[in-house]
Amino acid sequence: MPQMKLCDQIRQELLDIINANRNIKGYKLPSERMLSIKFNASRPSIRVAYQKLIKQGYVEVVHGKGYFIKNDNKSAKGKERIKLQMLFIAPSLKTAFMQQIYSGIMEFCEKNDIDVSIKITEETLKKEKQILELAFYSNYDGVILFPIDNEYYNETLLKFSISKYPLVIIDRYLKALNLSLVSTDNYNAMIDVIKYLYTKGYKNPVFVTHESSLATAVEERINGYNSGLLKYYGSVKNSNLLILKSNNRDYVYKSIKDFLQKNPETDALIVTDVYLSTAHSAITELHIPTPEQLRVVVFDNEISFAERKAIRPYIIEQDGKNIGYYAARYVYQQIRGDKQIQIKKFPIKIIGDEKNEY
């Protein structure tokens, strides 16, 4: 069975001492030096253990004298199990997909009596780096990271990787870093989407997407999409792909509108939820009837009832809850000592007319 993390072993040793001597007023606990010798551990590891016990109300520190059992300590008799703390770092919690991921994380952690904190990066690189840096030196036992777009290679994540700090990445992998990953199977998801459209009789699908450099998830979707076109349609044409270089609404609107005017044979438009509203505006402006002439296919169910009724899209649903659940599970396994790199990818579900309620 995997061994406890070293700082947890130290905390458990101290809890045993506290429980055995809690009725002795002013009982002094072992010094950092004594514990570092006993456990062959660094002073920072000892301090992390003590800081958590201070936070939990078991210990107080007297500067210049050391650590003492807190006089009003109300710990129960016998061994007190240490509650683990996990951190989820996310760009936001605004989307249903992200909320499902968080729900999955919470479900696993509640089952295993783990505390969960969440930090929002607001999709800014600077804030994500700051949160990661703080997390590395904090009392968190493990971290789940949903990286922002424009993935990057930075010194902090390298420290996580080298130190084998319990960390799992969600949604997109970070190249050159050997880290556990839980995500949608984006490559095969797009093959499934093309197969679905092909069997429904659509002849000229178009994928509206970011540039592949934005994220590995986008790169995998584009590659899977092209593979699906080759497999089911026999070729890949320039008119099958619209790559956008900016998220500026006016730019996206004009790009989609111009593309549809130049390619009136388009009968299926695949978009992410980010582009759906703008795409709908462009389609409406061109008076293209949906879904009779153009079927919209959208990643994730982020649209209002009114939009759904007007557009009648096919919805590509990602399994956010299982993604979150397994991310938490793999972090927990790492905390318990299993450092094996885990890669798990989930299939998508396509919701068509037969399951939509309009």
Report a brief summary of the structure.
By secondary structure, the chain is an alpha/beta fold. It has helices at 6-21, 32-39, 43-55, 96-111, 125-136, 155-163, 186-199, 216-232, 249-262, 273-285, 305-311, 320-335; strands at residues 59-62, 66-69, 85-90, 115-120, 142-145, 167-170, 180-184, 205-209, 241-243, 268-272, 295-299, 314-317, 343-346, 349-351.
For the structure shown, list the relevant keywords:
6-stranded parallel β-sheet; alpha/beta; elongated; 12 helices; 358 residues
Topology:
Blueprint lengths: L5 H16 L10 H8 L3 H13 L3 E4 L3 E4 L15 E6 L5 H16 L3 E6 L4 H12 L5 E4 L9 H9 L3 E4 L9 E5 L1 H14 L5 E5 L6 H17 L8 E3 L5 H14 L5 E5 H13 L9 E5 L5 H7 L2 E4 L2 H16 L7 E4 L2 E3 L7
Parallel strand pairs: 3-4, 3-5, 5-6, 6-7, 7-13, 8-9, 8-10, 10-11, 11-12
Antiparallel strand pairs: 1-2, 12-14
Helix content: 40-55%
Beta percentage is: 15-25%
Overall 3D geometry?
elongated
> Overall mean pLDDT score?
88
Specify the biggest β-sheet: 6 strands, parallel
Cα-based radius of gyration, to the nearest Å: 26 Å
Query: Care to count the β-strands?
Result: 14
Please list the strands of the largest sheet in the order they lie side by side.
4-3-5-6-7-13
Low-confidence parts:
73-79
Secondary-structure-derived class: alpha/beta
Q: What sequence of helices (H) and strands (E) makes up the elements?
A: HHHEEEHEHEHEEHEHEHEHEHEHEE
- End-to-end separation in angstroms reads 53 Å
Number of helical elements: 12
